[in-house]
């Protein structure tokens, strides 16, 4: 192996190198398909709700919408999850919830994504219905049954408990741990 090259001021090169070698080992083509993404995270055989959620995450990571996550998209996603500022993460969550892409989240969208997340992360002490009602009660300022990006970000940033709940529920670091540690083996 040759010396590792790093450009001055290029951030944590060893960490990126680690992710790159892990990515290339798991995905020699350099293009991660949805099927490979699920396999990498040990998330095959989920119920339809869980599958829907993983597909949404995959689609959001697939920045150029070509049906694959390449290494640059992968690193962008990791950077967001690990180092992203809170408003960047909230924008990402908003995009995740806004299933039809119309720029608003309605109760049905929030309910379905939270149900899917519970299927993957295990259940929280709130049901999906309670969570959805609470979010809308707290941050749907104009009571129109829809949340705009602005309502969502302002509402969540103002409410520490809600912020904590959303951050914990949608924490993707367990996804990253699975990637870092290589493929999870079912026991």
Molecular structure report:
The protein has one domain (15-181): EF-hand (Recoverin, domain 1). Helix 3 packs across helix 6 (107-121), helix 5 (86-97) crosses helix 8 (149-158) and helix 6 packs across helix 7 (128-139). The chain has ten helices and four strands; from the N terminus they run αβααβααβααβααα. By secondary structure, the chain is mainly alpha-helical. Helices cover 61% and strands 5% of the residues. One of its GO terms (molecular function) is calcium ion binding.
Helix content: 55-70%
Largest sheet: 2 strands, antiparallel
Q: Tell me, what's the shape?
A: globular
What is the CATH topology classification name? Answer: Recoverin, domain 1
Summed up, the domain count is 1
Low-confidence sequence ranges: 1-12, 183-187
The value of Rg in angstroms is: 18 Å
Strand content: 5-15%
Number of helices: 10
Number of strands: 4
The CATH superfamily is EF-hand
Distance between the termini: 35 Å
Question: What is the string of SSEs from the N terminus onward?
Answer: HEHHEHHEHHEHHH
CATH class: Mainly Alpha
Mean pLDDT: 78
Kindly report the oligomeric state of this protein: single chain
Widest sheet, order of strands:
1-2
Which architecture would the CATH scheme give at its second level? Orthogonal Bundle
Structural class: mainly alpha
């Amino acid at each position: 192996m040759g010396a590792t090259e790093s450009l001055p001021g290029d951030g944590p090169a060893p960490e990126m190198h680690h992710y790159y070698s892990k990515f290339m080992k798991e995905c020699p083509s350099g293009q991660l398909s949805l099927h490979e993404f699920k396999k990498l995270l040990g998330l095959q055989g989920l119920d339809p709700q869980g599958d829907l959620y993983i597909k949404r995450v995959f689609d959001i990571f697939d920045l150029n919408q070509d049906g694959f996550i390449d290494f640059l998209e992968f690193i962008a996603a990791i950077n967001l999850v690990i180092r992203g500022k809170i408003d960047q993460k909230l924008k990402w969550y908003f995009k995740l919830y806004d299933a039809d892409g119309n720029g608003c989240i309605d109760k049905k969208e929030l309910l379905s994504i939270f149900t899917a997340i519970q299927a993957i992360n295990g259940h929280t002490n709130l049901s999906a219905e309670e969570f959805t009602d609470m979010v809308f009660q707290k941050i749907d300022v104009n009571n129109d049954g829809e949340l705009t990006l602005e309502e969502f970000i302002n509402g969540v940033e103002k409410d520490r408990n809600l912020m904590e709940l959303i951050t914990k529920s949608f924490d993707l670091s367990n996804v990253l741990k699975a990637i870092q540690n290589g493929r999870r083996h079912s026991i």
